[in-house]
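Q: Is it fine to ask for two folds in a single conversation?
A: Yes, each is treated on its own. Send the first.
Q: Here.
A: Result:
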Amino acid sequence: MSGPDAAHRRPEGLDDATVDALGKLSEALEAVEVARGHLYAFHRLSGTADLTLGEAVDMLRAAGRTELAERIATELVGRNVVPGRWSFQIVEEYDDGYYATFKDLERAARDQLAEGRRHLYEAQMKEDRRTHGRGGHEATPDEL
């Protein structure tokens, strides 16, 4: 039988409107995953900037620019990126709060409505868009 594998076949009685809604929920989660990646990039870049800034301070001191070096060292090196927080604290709060809640609710919706199956919307889209029987358009790797 050609078509999605069992993990991507819609359960009996699951209507199009629910599959569409779950697809939109999955799309929203994908956007959250991208945002999370950007947040981690912000974290990494902020840390790199602070370490590099420390090197610049050392170089200013070595060049005899101690007053400016001391001002940068005391006002900026190790400074919070937002009040009371370094970037790792922002990442942790995001991960433990918004992100964890989003992931939990997305999974709960799939479990409740679709027997936990993922990407049903996309699997249906693949079936609708592929050219059945043509090489490179197989439903699963088993058809190769």
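Q: Second one now.
A: Result:
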Amino acid sequence: MSKGFQDCAFSVSMIVIGAWLWWEAIQPRYQTSAAQDYGFSPTFLPRILIGMWIVISLILLIRSFGLWSRRVSGSEWKTLGLFVALVFAYVGLMTQIGFLFSSIPFAICAMWFMGFRRALPVALIATAFPLAVWYGFVFILKIPLPYSPWFSQI
């Protein structure tokens, strides 16, 4: 199988999933919520993220057309399978140990899978980014994230 075909299939599937999520986000039942009164719809941020998802998927689709001659090695499939298993473990652990305690190790492992090996930058980014996301959601947007059973707010 060629790298271009693999990337094309992935991009098309991500565009289809993104379109479905966009269609779901514009449904009337999500436009108003009695629990939130922030001056914007509860789907405001999700629509921004879904829009970014679709744009990135379109860029990947366009990029895939230049990769049709490159073959995919077996080690790439192994790496993909391990990364998918890591994502499933992350999602499962998030509900058990909270967003922060699952996101920091996940970020370290994800960067390692992507080839980043310098310990200090990886540790700083893997700690700072989940903390910033957590702070933004919990304190700025007032959207609760899964919290640790050991601490009530983390």
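Q: Anything structural to flag on that second result?
A: Two points. Residues 34 and 42 are 10 Å apart (CA to CA). The mean pLDDT is 84.
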